[in-house]
Write a structure and sequence with these properties.
Elements: E1 2-9, H1 15-29, E2 35-42, E3 49-56, H2 59-66, H3 69-80, E4 87-92
């Protein structure tokens, strides 16, 4: 099992745009083979910080997601409305 945690800080005034893009991304991604969970969380202290927490059956499923039509189309749009590079981490379950 693979977990992904991807944190972004959305530009001032662009939160609604970001949430709309994430909504489409989530709707399409949760139908992908190997996707267990794909959820968006908002920081309690700073609402502009949005974090995707993903769970995948394996690295191959994650790799397939990263070349899907919707990811290739939506990810660059999200990058345009974030302040800095995302903090993107991939984790393997140990225990």
């Amino acid at each position: 099992m693979i977990k992904v945690v991807a944190k972004n800080c959305v530009l001032e005034g662009r939160l609604d745009d970001a949430i709309a893009l994430y909504k489409e991304l989530i709707e399409k991604t949760t139908k992908e083979k190997g996707c267990i969970k794909y959820e968006l969380f908002q920081d309690i202290n700073d609402p502009r910080i949005l974090t995707m927490i993903e769970e995948w059956e394996n690295k191959e499923a994650l790799n397939a997601h990263e070349v899907s039509e919707h990811f290739i189309r939506i990810f660059p749009l999200l990058k345009e409305i974030t302040e800095k590079d995302s903090d993107f981490r991939i984790y393997e379950r140990l225990l």
